[in-house]
C-alpha cells in the first residue's frame, strides 16, 4: 500500500540475503501472528533498514482484511516491497521453513512413538516474553502512528473493540471508520489530485492475470473436486487446504473448526486425537499455528503430503496479498488515499497493543501462580527496552527460565 516501489528497497539486498534474514526470523518467532510481525519489524525496519514502519502497518492492515494467515501474508507483503513478487515468495518460504522442518520431525516422532513431543515448560516461559516482544514493537511504532489526540483516540477505540468484541467484521468497521476520520482530518483543496504520473503505477498485467487464474482455480477445486472422481491424495490435499486458506478470515485459530471438519469428519484422514496433536504441536513450533497443516499432510501422504499441504495453506493467500497490494499502489499517489492510510495506521497501532494485552490476559487466566510469568514478562521488557538486546536472546532467556520455574 506504500507508494514506494520495490526497486527503491532492492538496492544492495539479494534474494539470498532476504532468505537468510527471514529464515532467522522463522527460527525465533514463537507465538505466531503479531509476535512474528514484531520480529519482522525489528529485523527489517530497525536492523537492516529495508522498509519503514508505515509499510509494516500498511501490510498488517491489508493482511487483516484478506483471508489466510495474517503473519505470513505480512511477510509476503514485505518481501514484495523489497524485491517484488519473487522476493515475497522467497521471504514467505524462508519464514515457514524452520517450523516446517520441526513439524515434520515432530510428526515422525509422534506417529512412530504415539507420544506428544511438547516442551510445555519452555513454552510457558516463552509466552510472557512474546507479550513483551509485541508490546516493544508497538511502542516503537508510536511515533509514526500517533501524531495527535485524534490518532490516540483511534488507537484506544481500536484496542478496546478488539479486546471486547473481536471478529473480522469488527476489524473491517474499525479500519473503515479510521480511514474516514483520516480523510476528513486531512481533507484539503487538492485532495485527490495526483502528485505522480499515473503511468508509473502498476497495471493489471499478465502476472496479475496469472495469479487471478491460480486463485480462482484453488477455489474451484475446493468447491467442485468432491463431485469429481479424483483419487490422487496429493490433489485432494492441495484442494482442501488451498480452498480453505482463501475462504476464511481472521487468522489461524478461526481455521481450526473448518480444518477439523474437513480432515477428521469429511475425509477421515485423521482421528480426533491426531488432529488435537497437530494443533498442539503447531503451538509449540515457531511461526504460525497453521503449520499444523504440515503434520496433517505428513500423516496422510508422508513427506510429499507435508510439502503439498504446507504450500497449499500458505501460498494462495500470499499470492492474493501481493496482487492486492500492487493494485492498491495505483491509488497511492492520491492525497485522500494517503490520508486514509494515516488513519488506519493509528488503528493498527491500537490492535498491536491489544494483541500484547490479550496474550497477557490469557496467561493470567491460565496461571495458578502469577509471580513467575510476571517476573519473566518484566525481565523480557528490561532486556528489550533497556539493554536493547534482540528478540532471540529474550526468547532463549525466557525458555530457560520456564524450564527452571514451571
TrEMBL record:
One of its GO terms (molecular function) is chromate transmembrane transporter activity. The keyword Transmembrane applies. Its main location: membrane. GO terms for cellular component: plasma membrane. It is found in: Cell membrane. Keywords: Cell membrane, Membrane, Transmembrane, Transmembrane helix. The chain crosses the membrane at residues 21-40, 60-79, 86-110, 122-139, 151-184, 204-225, 237-256, 300-323, 344-364, 370-387. Signal peptide: none annotated. It is a multi-pass membrane protein. The keyword Transferase does not apply. Belongs to the chromate ion transporter (CHR) (TC 2.A.51) family. PANTHER family: CHROMATE TRANSPORT PROTEIN-RELATED, CHROMATE TRANSPORTER. This is Chromate efflux transporter. It comes from Aliiroseovarius halocynthiae.
